[in-house]
Design goal:
MTA/SAH_deaminase, 2 domains, Urease, subunit C, domain 1, TIM Barrel, single chain, 6-stranded parallel β-sheet, alpha/beta
């Protein structure tokens, strides 16, 4: 074995039985979990997890990491007001190098807070993927599609060309395994004709699709006025749902939408923090799950939710269920699973990550339980959802590679990154 994690007080597995193990060791060989049990077999390196909880790395199923540079830029607005402010700022600074820089910052924030995988939709995906991989993140990215040139200045034919080049770009950059994705922004920025073309390319490439769907009531109304359909129906009728698809947000999915999504195997990245802050609404988490939809949790961008903290997202997801329904309807196990194995299923990685099982890739986090706010331990799932926080994460592994050790990145220098970020965002000063 390359590594043996031993003496862990608890191990939250997120396996099919939702087992929580005590005092077991976890062996890692060639980046994969090769042993789980009470013994302490030999290994090249040993990590003493005494007094700690080991859990699967958290999975952020919808975000825009590069927008970490716009944290706090657009406050006190709804989605439309947010977009107007953010697009102006992005137009001022978000060239390829800045997208890479912002993604480095976002990737580091994610890893330090226990998130090992992100579904990241943003401009200049080659650059963003390069930045995220440099920090050690399992970073799902893909070519972006708009009908119009947009902030990256690409014409439609250029977007199509980049889609066909994407697999080669991924191979050049390397990093932890990710599925191939294409990312049309939404049904309100991509015409049915263009969505049909993206769906066809996805079929040819064996790719999956990620796009925004039914984030607000205004979006649903807009699409209804244009096409006499819901966004989900547009996705169905353009062939988008004929390939594995994950919806960003899905706040205002109707019962019929949920039935369509479930029948087509579509999933949802639920972002309660962003939805609450922008006043977009309260997504029907339990109803989507009951319909058979895989629901993962996400943060959305730092520009709309202000951080990439998946612990706070778990907490807000539980509160939204309590508010929409009742506290008795909050299933804490399902909330933890929505940040781990169900999120992995939503993004198409449940055969590789999302749970602690032999044969899975070793995306793991260690949480220090030596804290007043984590004492005593009566219910571990309640502890994770309502009490634990990103500051409790001490160590992080992605595919067996320790990318965070003792709350510090093993890949990049934080102080140097902060300096580069602060220098770059000075270009926003004229817009203040």
């Amino acid at each position: 074995m390359d590594l043996l994690i031993t003496n862990a007080r608890y191990t939250v597995t997120s396996n099919s039985a939702n087992e929580i193990l005590e005092n077991v060791s976890i062996g890692i060989t060639d980046g994969k979990i090769s042993y789980i049990g009470p013994d302490k077999p030999g290994a090249k390196k040993v990590y003493d997890a005494a007094g700690k909880l080991i859990a699967p790395g958290l999975i952020n199923s919808h975000t825009h990491l590069g927008m970490s540079l716009l944290r706090g830029w657009s406050e006190g607005v709804n989605l439309q007001g947010f977009l107007e402010l953010v697009w102006a700022a992005e137009g001022a600074i978000m060239d390829e190098a800045t997208c890479e820089l912002g993604t480095e910052l976002g990737a580091l924030e994610a890893l330090l807070s226990g998130t090992t995988t992100t579904m990241d939709m943003y401009l200049n995906p080659v650059a963003t993927h390069r930045g995220a991989v440099r920090v050690g993140l399992r970073h799902i990215a893909g070519p972006i599609f708009f009908d119009f040139p947009g902030l990256d200045g690409l014409q439609w034919h250029q977007r199509i060309e980049r889609a066909h080049q994407w697999k080669d770009e991924l191979a050049k950059i390397g990093g932890p395994y990710i599925p191939t994705y294409l990312m049309p922004h939404s049904t309100y920025t991509d015409s049915p004709e263009n969505l049909t073309e993206v769906a066809q390319i996805a079929k040819e490439l064996g790719a999956r699709i990620h796009l925004h769907v039914s984030e607000t009531e205004a979006e649903n109304l807009d699409i209804a006025q244009r096409y006499s359909k819901t966004p989900t129906e547009v996705c169905r009728d353009t062939g988008i749902l004929d390939v594995p698809t994950i919806f960003g947000h899905g706040v205002h999915l109707s019962d019929s939408d949920m039935k369509i999504a479930a029948s087509k195997g579509a999933s949802v990245g639920h972002c309660p923090g962003s939805n609450l802050k922008l006043g977009s609404g309260l997504a029907r988490f339990n109803d989507m799950r009951k319909a058979g939809i895989a629901v993962g949790l996400g943060t959305d961008s730092c520009a709309s939710s202000n951080d990439l903290d998946m612990f706070s997202v778990m907490r807000m997801a539980a509160h939204v269920v309590a508010l929409r329904q009742s506290p008795a309807d909050v299933d804490l196990v399902s909330i933890v699973r929505a940040a781990t194995i169900e999120a992995a299923r939503a993004v198409g990685l449940d055969d590789r990550i999302g749970s602690i099982e032999i044969g899975k890739e070793a995306d793991l986090i260690a949480i220090d339980l030596h804290a007043a706010h984590l004492t005593p331990v009566h219910n571990l799932n309640a502890l994770l959802v309502f009490a634990a926080g990103r500051g409790d994460v001490t160590d992080v592994w992605v595919a067996g590679d320790q990318v965070v050790a003792s709350r510090t990145s093993t890949k990049i220098d934080l102080a140097e990154l902060i300096n580069r970020v602060n220098q770059r965002v000075k270009a926003l000063d004229p817009l203040r």
